[in-house]
Amino acid sequence: MARTSTTKRQILDAALELAATKGITGTTMDEVAERAGVAKGSLYYNFSSKDLLFEALLKERVGALAESLRRAKGERRGQEAIEALVAELLDVIAANSALAKLMAAEIFRTDRVWQETLFALRHEALAVFAEAIAEASGPAGAGNADASAAAAGLRASAVFGAVLMAGLEWLVFEPERDRAEVAAAILATLRPA
Questions:
Q1: Which end of the chain has fewer surrounding CB within 10 Å, N or C?
Q2: Residue 58: which residues within 8 A CB-CB, separation 6 or more?
Q3: 52, 86, 62: which is closest to 161 by C-alpha?
């Protein structure tokens, strides 16, 4: 992640906090400047529009999420990698519930200027899950490699979404539960019956 100035960091953090509670549409640039403790001129110097501000925020945070998933997977393969990815995503959600709330609210919005950026970053994060899922599924036959890759991609989306929503459910409604218990419940739903 590129080095971010103190002012930009304050602005991005304030924008995330506000958007997590009010939504992006309900968040104004005036509120961001006030929450960040910066003059409106500084806000507009760093981000000339609300769209550019939230695109930068999502690019930074979802990009960092994809990188943390790649690190968590590391050299792990198959089921071991899936377990590490579920645990890492739950840890990221627990450490940054504001980002999780924002992602849950924005991931399927298609009317946003930054949708293409978010789609590309989402794809990076899902690719890590898809690789682990494909490895856990075993080698694909010569005739069905494309179908196996498509199935792994769809399963990756399902797993990522399940972890995101279960993580939010955990933090909001059952914060007393241990992260390992939440991860075990998610992983139990992924195993064949």
A1: C
A2: 102, 106, 114, 117, 118, 121
A3: 86
